[in-house]
Design brief:
alpha+beta, Alpha-Beta Plaits, four-stranded antiparallel beta sheet, 4 strands
């Protein structure tokens, strides 16, 4: 097969169906940009999980005098020194516990003032109103229930709280947004495939005389179909290139520059360039193969060769 003939036929086909080719490029670019974005969102969520789950603590809050008067869990009174020692001993014996840190009422008051010093409540708060606590670092954040079961309801314990539960709500929201993006991506892929099939059909119909002559002179089916398949592949590849450029530009302006989220949200561990660059070959391969396969199957049905 002469490459020059195939390339010329590709150029003719793209020029004849310029509007539909443009629609294919745009739809492929949008769908693959969403595809890449959803993959990066998954990486971002997993990165944040690994970063934050490694830092979350389980807190065992101890009863104080104020709790003894108002909280049913502290009906037997404020925690005693013996109870605190027993709780610490039991925590040290637990295999799921990595590290235990004690926070006194004065330390809790200092931390509260640092975080919420501008709050009107902070001015009227005193250290004795806050609770002593044990901050527990687990070897596996998923083992929270082991600690909760061991200490909930124990004398001197007001409550057991898991910071991971707060983060789980955030990650559920992020995962929901990611699935919504994937749904839109799937819809856009369907639209792109329909446009590719229609473009190939129109191109084949407009060149039915040429293909008829080629068939009469003994050209093989693949020789006749190749220009149409490659037209779709070229249009898809252009769209995939646009999608890759969009992801790179979005990463550059959203995280590093422009909005500079990496500087403004220092508590968020953002994905690096490696995560973006590793997705680009997959997007380009998909943009090339998806239109080519769609065109191949469309031609089998609509082009009589």
């Amino acid at each position: 097969m002469r490459a020059q003939f195939v390339l010329s036929e590709i150029g003719v086909g793209l020029r004849r169906n310029l509007t539909m080719t443009f629609a294919v490029v745009v739809s492929v670019a949008l769908s693959l940009a969403l595809f890449g974005g959803s993959l990066l969102m998954s990486d971002q969520v997993n990165t944040m999980k690994g970063y934050w789950y490694d830092k979350v603590n389980v807190s065992v809050f101890l009863c104080n005098k104020a709790d003894a008067e108002s909280d049913p869990n502290c009906a037997k009174g404020a925690v005693t020194e013996d109870q605190k020692k027993q709780i610490l001993t039991d925590l040290d014996k637990m295999t799921v516990v990595d590290k235990v840190t004690y926070e006194s009422q004065d330390q809790a008051y200092k931390h509260y003032k640092e975080q919420f010093g501008d709050s009107p409540l902070a001015a009227s708060l005193t250290p004795d109103q806050l609770q002593e606590s044990y901050r527990i670092k687990l070897k596996d954040p998923e083992k929270y229930q082991v600690v909760a079961t061991a200490f909930n309801g124990r004398d001197g314990v007001q409550s057991v709280q898991d910071q991971k539960g707060i983060l789980d709500n955030l990650f559920k929201l992020l995962n929901g947004m990611n699935w919504a993006a994937r749904a839109v991506m799937a819809l856009m892929l369907v639209v792109a495939l329909m446009l590719i099939v229609n473009t190939v059909r129109v191109s084949a119909f407009s060149r039915r005389r040429e293909t008829g002559i080629m068939r009469l002179v003994g050209a093989s089916g693949f020789y006749i179909q190749a220009p149409f398949i490659m037209e779709a592949a070229v249009a898809g590849l252009i769209g995939g290139t646009v999608a890759c450029a969009f992801l790179v530009i979005a990463r550059y302006f959203l995280i590093d520059h422009g909005l500079a989220l990496a500087d403004q949200l220092t508590l968020v561990n953002f994905i690096g360039w490696e995560a973006v660059l590793t997705k680009l070959p997959l997007i380009l391969a998909t943009s090339l193969l998806m239109p080519a396969l769609a065109a191949f199957f469309a031609l089998r049905k609509y082009l009589k060769v």
